[in-house]
Amino acid sequence: MFNWLFAKHHGGRYLLRIEDTDRTRSTQQAIDAILDGLDWLGLGSDEEPVYQFARAARHAEVAHQLLAGGHAYKCFATPEELAELREAQRAAKQPMRYDGRWRDRAPDEAPEGAPYVIRLKAPREGETVIEDAVQGRVVVRNAELDDMILLRSDGTPTYMLAVVVDDQDMGVTHVIRGDDHLNNAFRQLGIIRAMAEIEGGWEEPVYAHIPLIHGADGAKLSKRHGALGVDAYRDEMGLLPEAVVNYLLRLGWGHGDEEIISRERAVELFDLAGVGRSPARFDLKKLENLNGHYIREADDARLAALVAPRVAKLIGRELAEADTALLQQAMPALKPRARTLDEIADGALFLFAQRPLVPDEKAGALLDEAGRALIASCVQALGAVGQWTPEAIEDPIRGVAERAGLGLGKVAQPLRAALTGRTTSPGIFDVLFLLGREETLARLSDAA
């Protein structure tokens, strides 16, 4: 999202790369989920996605250029040797990194036909400095950087090589990513600077490493906090994409006291200077409350289309066109207090309930002898209503309350129980109007 906003704000291009070199994890299903989630959030790429695995030959070409230019070397260390090295370093409580044992040796010292990897000859003296657009100036001593593998023994490129080559070939100027990748930037710069010496034209991108998101308890975000796939927020939680984008935007970036920020406003305002350096805390309740705001702002026809499948699942049948039209008509009454699409769907169930209604325990308690007497009075009063409008319905019900010497709420409670089977619903006059004359009188007669 930050990449998308940054590109739009500066009139740049927002690009997508599917890094599918791990063939076991990069299934078509997983890739489709990424593309589907980005499209739902309105973060689709400006150009066709680049698939990293398809560019393996280009990545290998660069590794061999580095080898030929003296910036990389063949390493014939066996897995057993490397395991012994790691064990010795672990025992000595030293950082576990490759010791460069083949860095200055001639390849002909290895047995003929022995497998090898190609490693980058990283600088060992001095330090590497990154002026990060979020983290500020970050310095690493080059002695802490190891000679990372560029090509494996089977000739396949590593992720660290592939991303650098792809960034250069795609014309990437800014790399905005999680701060868990900050250490990688120093290692990747070694490739960029070496290739700049070999053939020129390799530009260092501007790096911006943004903090990760934590749970409300301050711990690293996990599934128990809500760290789920995008489809879970859409399908299972019933959230709107504009709410998710707004919430995530304010989670890691800010502009004064503005909380409700439209996409257009975000594009206008966004820059990296507003990104915080500390991890933000994910709060599902705050996200749901923000979603409630966007539900109230949303078009009723759009909401009805989104809620209809949820209602259908709850009642066990598909909604007819007339049902969806009723749902849309009911939306002004259903959405004011709802925080999710599921809450709207649940609130709409009374519209499609089958007679006779079976009230829940609390609603049933309202249908005692006194409650049924009030309902009978309402049936008589409503039976005289000619045109079924909200205004025409209201007066008779208020009249029943006045004659009984009760407040309107005391009459509305048993009415609501009889009409919806629950103690909570939209306003009672909305319920009466939406159910229509025939269904309203039938349900009230059943209860009376």
Automatic annotation (TrEMBL):
It is an enzyme of class 6 (ligase). Its EC number is 6.1.1.17. The keyword Transcription does not apply. Coiled coil: none annotated. It is found in: Cytoplasm. One of its GO terms (molecular function) is glutamate-tRNA ligase activity. GO terms for biological process: glutamyl-tRNA aminoacylation. Residues 303-447 form the Aminoacyl-tRNA synthetase class I anticodon-binding domain. Monomer. This is Glutamate--tRNA ligase. It comes from Sphingobium jiangsuense. The gene is gltX.
